[in-house]
# Entry
Amino acid sequence: MNLDQIFSKLISFPTISENSNKELANFIIDYLNKIGLKAKKIEGEKGRFNVFCRIGPKKDGGIAFSGHTDVVPTDGQKWTSNPFNLTMKNNKYYGRGTADMKGFIAVVLSLLKKLKIKEMKKPLFLIFSYDEEVGCLGIQKLVPFLNKLDPKPKFCIVGEPTEMKLVNQHKGKKNFEVSFNGLESHSSLINEGVNAIQYCSKFIQFLEAKQKLIEKKKDLNFYPSFTTINVGKISGGTAVNIIPNNCKIEFEIRDTPKFNTEKFVNQIKDYLLILEGEMKSFYKNCSISLSEQNNFPPLITNHNSNIISLCLEKLRTNSVNTVYLDNSNTIVGENTDVFGLQAAYLKEIVNAEKKKALVIGAGGVSPSVIFSLQKSKITNVSIANRTLDKSIFLKKRFNFLNILEWETFKKKLNEFDIIINATSLGLKGGQDFDFHFDNVKDSSIYIDTIYNPIETKTLKFLKNNKIKTFGGLDMLIYQGQKSFYLWHKINPEIDEELVQLLNSKLQ
# Structure
């Protein structure tokens, strides 16, 4: 089966959470068996199955590909085609689960046939779960099995749709149910009853007040940049003329890694005890109960992790400046900016992981600059751009970025070890910076990606003030070296004569 056939078959299974995914799990197992791989079907809730497969040597390390097999319902939605029949329109696939996330599973399965298993140095794991859409139920049931694995995978790539942006962290999720049990009475005798709905409303107001306080504690790695609380369901009462003796709500907390959720939950419990005491003071049998329905923690993978570098290496910069033919005569697009930056400047930086960098500009070369810094283990990176929206857009891709406003970053230049101009300011015939970099600390490195002129006014100013500087020419030369290799498979030498020649041409 090719990719399209696998994809079409996966879409055809209506694996919404209320249905079993047994047939889909059997299909995956059969497919893996046919290509010579052994897989396990692991039952969780009745009629729900996880699928597990280890490929390659039984050694420590390796990568797991994880995905869920369930999809969200289609009820009440205006589909112009059968949602469980893969359809192509205007060069796009339509069907429930095409993106979230049977498309990923289909790609993984189709590529397995290309694996040279005997040559694999590390294992590959497949982990396909059920009922992710209703609380990650399948993977939770699978955790005890995964904990007993020997060996275990070192890294895991989850194929959720992210518009091809690398996501290395997520908020946690805690679901709670709170039941308020009061005392029923006629609506005309409010002094003889305990209104469960009103006490529930007090609790909701408490959560609302807490939300406003929480929003002051920012974590810019996320949007929104704070822990959130949402009351999603409420039910209670029997009639408008009866004081309700019951009310139930369900709420969730989406917490950031830096948020002290345990402390916050204890505050909730303390407040519920206060409310319960008020209710019991009128009628001793009143009660409030809090139960946890679901709980998975926030997660963050270190920006310097090998798996992050690997993924970024594959994603690259989403831009091309060199085109060549590969061995199969296929046209390939490559970006040489990263290589140029690495070879020219960044490879020589000592204790890079401890450095603090500033990127000025969010234009075309900026993603390459940021990726190069990350590749050099520099993740304490700030960005400043005249247009804030462009900085925010880059942060969606490189979520470790700190965003500085254009009018304020100038005052903070002394905080940075590395400053990189990724704007066109200073370009020959154009405008330069409208301020002096006179507060740059002596130990800083200033890098300008501009090579025409050889030295911009800002670079000259800093050079005259004994700041270590680099112009864009070195980057250009190493970019050319990389391009020449891609075209001719020859790695040309770079010597002083070449540098002088280019200098003379750019004067």
